[in-house]
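fyi for ur records
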Amino acid sequence: MLMSAARLRRAVARRLLRAAESRLPASLVRPRYLQHIRLGARDLEGTVFKLASTPEEREGAFRLVHDSYTRKGLLDSAPTGLKVTPYDVMPSTAIFIAMRGGAVVGTLSLIEDGPLGLPMDDVFPHETERVRRRGGRLAELSAYAIDPSVRGRATSLMLYNLMFRWVWWHRYTQDIVIAVHPRVTRFYEVVLLFDRLHARASYHRFHNAPAEALHLNLRGIWPRFEKLYARKSGGLPDAPRGDALNLSDFFGYREFAEIQLPAQPEHGEPTLPPAWRDDEIERFVRTRRHHFSGLDAETRRLLREAHPSLTGMLADPPRPERERRAAAEASERRASGTPPYLLDTLPTT
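which gave:
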């Protein structure tokens, strides 16, 4: 269907506005963004924001991401109707969800750096390594999706609200990285205070869609929010939810009955996300083999370490006899310390 002249004019105007904003200092652009960041009294009605903790909640998140990404042309449809990666089942990965009427209507994941690394390592290895060298706990934001039935920005804002409270009060995260489409870079930079890592690439996992690498330094983040938002965004901590939001208070301190998080840990111990039970992870991998069949040996090993109950399902395939014999001979040579070219010259008695 051809785009109407009015819609075409609006699309061109938006494109020109984004191009102009990309060249302006963040301080000049921020007021326009803040005009649209409001939370009405009805926006959160009937919605709960929490960590996915059941197979149904996790699969609801995976299905929402799959449907959203395929609709946008970023993924081919999977036989399972889910978007799942090994990162999604690691014990330290937090899956944030918005639940309404028993269904997942929004999701966002926080993948912590570890033996598997980060998804961004495939596309932005130099940038993620540069952030790693800072030290501290590093994580990547990923798998963001909102159901089309959910209107407005309230669900997105509350998912980020949940994420900030999790990393600050429960995981003590110091750095967050994210790969986003260049057209939304300005929002993350202007509103959420991410910095550009000055790297763009084509994301091969998502049909070569353009992506830009961003970084958020969480050290001292609340003073930065307070400096920018405590007065300039309007609205005080006890202001009605229809007013412009004080984002420093919103992301850290205001109480929300809609947010469900575990009690803060004692003695500074980080909180882990809700764990997969052995029977849950076994059933999930067994019924979703499509997502785990092509894993390399190292990834299978790391998943077995994280979930010992998967040892049988994710065992390494048996080696061909010739490969097995060669590996045994190589092991024998290493044990004896004998260079392989001398083996034929050694006496056998």
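Residues 192 and 216 are 8 Å apart (CA to CA). thats all i got for now
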